[in-house]
Amino acid sequence: MESPSPFPSAAPAEAGFDPDRLAEAVAFAEASDSPFPRDLLAHLESGFFEPPPDNEVLGNTAPRGAPNGLILREGRLVARWGDTRRVDMTFSVAKSYLALLAGLAVGDGLIGDLDAPVSAGVRDPAFQGPRNGAITWRMLLQQTSEWEGTLFGKADRIDRGRDLKREGTGPKGIDRPLKTPGTYWEYNDIRVNALSLALLHRFRRPLPEVFAERIMRPIGASEDWRWEGYRTSFVEIDGRRIQSVSGGGHWGGGVFTHAEDQARIGQLMLQDGIWEGRRVLPEGWVAACTTPCALNADYGLLWWLNGQGRYPAASRESFFAQGAGGNVIWVDPRNRIVGAFRWLAPTARPELLAKVMAAKA
């Protein structure tokens, strides 16, 4: 039996979709399974991201489920497929969650200026020295920090030279010379984990607690999700041993959740951080997250953008939270659409977006 709808429902035609074309898009999504095997631990240990010993898994993992997802328009459910309540790893979707926490920190005054050095408010060896001490919050959020070092047993070198277009097939981990912080864009999971650590120092409590209290409960999310770090990522804050969470599942850990809660995050972003009349995210934070980085116009503050037409069929205003293996939150402000896709083959993503847009009347 299908579980009750997590959102108010609308017939596709009522929401402005051609029912047959939308059904075709759903069928395509169901048939476009991720190339990631079901045994994600074995996949990580096989050296998909990098060879041993850099690939050592430090956090929990879980076998994945089948493709599933849902589509909302104006906050109403118009399509759903698969088990949308199956809790699975999300990989780098967690990075976009960190951006929301950074927004809360800005709103709370814990971060006074994104362009201020992190070291001004964070006392941790990770942010000391001429290089790391000069890194700003914006650099970490835009992935331009060029942070250098080893954090929780993982060196930044592991992800130097990473090219997402050939993820799992090309070399990385090169000892390229580092640039001045703020002058070079690179997708680097160790540096994102450094941001998470910095936010932990500012909130001085576990980030999942803050996320549950300030975001997930206000938007009516389930209690099914969890956010974890590594067995090596415990730090002491005010005499309390706290796990610093990871910004993805690269070495295990990260956010484990389901499509319905992912869609709520997308709807919150669509609604400019407001939920049922209550402001959840600070005013202007969604705009900040979706403002292109000067060094990569496809990237904002840990959210992927479509202003350059990476996905030609989707509106240029669309933006995305994206994780390895085909985990996506799609937000289209122009057309008031939110999509949450789990285990969708990345090569199928442009066509799925095209099919959804073709179904829009």
Description:
With 361 residues, this protein is an alpha+beta fold. It contains 9 helices and 14 strands. The chain has helices at 19-31, 40-45, 93-107, 137-142, 189-203, 207-216, 259-270, 285-289, 349-359, and strands at residues 68-73, 76-81, 88-89, 150-151, 154-155, 226-237, 240-245, 254-257, 274-275, 278-279, 304-305, 319-323, 327-332, 337-342. The strands form 4 sheets. Strands 2-1-14-13-12-11 form a 6-stranded antiparallel β-sheet, with helices on both faces. A 4-stranded antiparallel β-sheet has the order 3-8-6-7. A two-stranded antiparallel sheet has the order 4-5. Strand 13 (327-332) and strand 14 (337-342) form a beta hairpin. Helix 1 packs antiparallel against helix 9 and helix 3 runs parallel beside helix 5. The two termini are 31 Å apart. The model has no long low-confidence stretch (mean pLDDT 96).
Which residues form runs of ≥5 with pLDDT under 50? none
| Integer-rounded radius of gyration | 19 Å
Quantity of strands, as a count: 14
Strand content: 15-25%
Shape: globular
Distance between the termini: 31 Å
In the sheet with the most strands, the strands line up as 2-1-14-13-12-11
